[in-house]
Amino acid sequence: MKFFVDSADVAEIRDLVDTGLVDGVTTNPSLVAKAGRDFFAVLREICALVAGPVSAEVTATAADAMIAEGRKLAAVAPNVTVKVPLTWDGLKACRALSQAGTAVNVTLCFSPAQAILAAKAGATFVSPFVGRLDDIGHDGMALIRDIVTIYRNYPGTIATEVLVASVRHPMHVVDAAKIGAQVCTIPPAVLRQLAKHVLTDKGLDAFLADWKKTGQSIVAG
Ligand code: G3P
Q1: Candidate list 2, 72, 83, 202, residue with the active-site label
Q2: For a Cys-Cys bond, which of 141, 156, 158, 196 suits 119, CB 3.0-4.6 Å?
Q3: pLDDT digits 0-9 by tens, 209-218
Q4: Tell me, what CATH number does 48's domain have?
């Protein structure tokens, strides 16, 4: 499973990229606003930090304007993936951009029907938002299961990857992996939580305490 960092905070992204376990980045207008910096400067810096796909979202709502914005964003760096919302205009823009060779991430997906359209539009990624469905009492992970099942029925024609978004906690990542989603985009705090376990901390403390009693040192040995 590919791990993308869901953030526009360059310092956070740099820190996580240094682990060697980050495959890409996703941003959106809210994350860019939260970063409080010039969008193009942030995008250039992120694209230089990670070799994998970096999603940058258009803010226009009409297809022609989305296409124009998408072309401008794609020109920033070779690893830019243009993000468009799952609307008819977004799908038209996705079709045009993908046919011109631009990678497109169709976002704000909340139903299997929408995901089918994203695939038909040639999306590189579709971003179903599991957390926001959970937030209103729906089963976000059921949507991932449905999309993966549907896409798997068309191995020769659907190349769109399922990019699980709106991730709230580590179990979203685990469940997405069990289902077989190709990508999870994960907020920095959740990504850091993935490695944490109380028994790991407890076990390491015990190992080091016992080792200290031996009075030995590997580095001096
Ligand atoms: O990539 C989409 C993600 O940032 C949305 O997450 O927490 O606003 O639902 P959230």
Answers
A1: 83
A2: 158
A3: 999 999 999 9
A4: 3.20.20.70
